[in-house]
Amino acid sequence: MSLSPQEALVYIMVVVSAADRRMSDEELGRIGSVVRNLPIFKEFSQDALTFVCGQCADILDDDNGMNNVLDIIAETVPAKLRDTAYAVAVEIAAADLDIRPEEIRILELLRARLKINKLTSAAIELGAQARHRTV
Predict the structure, then answer these.
(1) What number of other Cβ atoms are within 10 A of residue 88's Cβ?
(2) Which pLDDT belongs to residue 86?
(3) What's the pLDDT score for residue 24?
């Protein structure tokens, strides 16, 4: 399967959102917001978002689906976008202000597959926490 880097980033967001077997309205809204607002998605068609999310969900439903999706992501995301990929994952996990153990595990798997070092991942995670903090 051949994906664009943007499609792989959407797969990442779907995987994180679906990690706890439920996709909250906050997470779905955040996926749409990320796609609309981040420069990396400038050339990505908004109309394709639903299709790409469904495509990822179909793969996740197969046997060994999570590993297959993680393999596709690791093969597709170029080295220069790996920190961006991890940042979008953390953004979705933090969207509902309740990062569950399943989401933490997915983030760990993504860090390993994308070869994100601890300092980079900590900085990205702290940035997301700061953006989503409420009074």
Answers:
(1) 25
(2) 97
(3) 65
Give the pLDDT confidence of 42-94 residue by residue, as tens digits: 999 888 998 999 899 899 988 899 999 999 999 999 999 999 999 999 988 88
Q: What H or E segment, with its residue span, contains residue 44?
A: none
**Residue ranges per structural domain of the chain:** 5-132
CATH superfamily of 5-132: TerB-like (1.10.3680.10)
Amino acid at the residue 78: P
- Ordered DSSP codes for 61-130: HSTTHHHHHHHHHHHHS-GGGHHHHHHHHHHHHHTTS---HHHHHHHHHHHHHHT--HHHHHHHHHHHHH
Contacts of 53 (CB under 8 A, 6+ apart): 10, 14, 31
**Angstrom distance (rounded) from CA 63 to CA 25:** 27
Pick from 103, 104, 110: nearest CA to 67 = 110
- The pLDDT, as a whole number, for residue 95 is 75
Per-residue pLDDT, 121: 94
Q: Is the pLDDT of residue 27 over 80?
A: no
Q: Cα 72–77–82 angle (5° rounding)?
A: 125
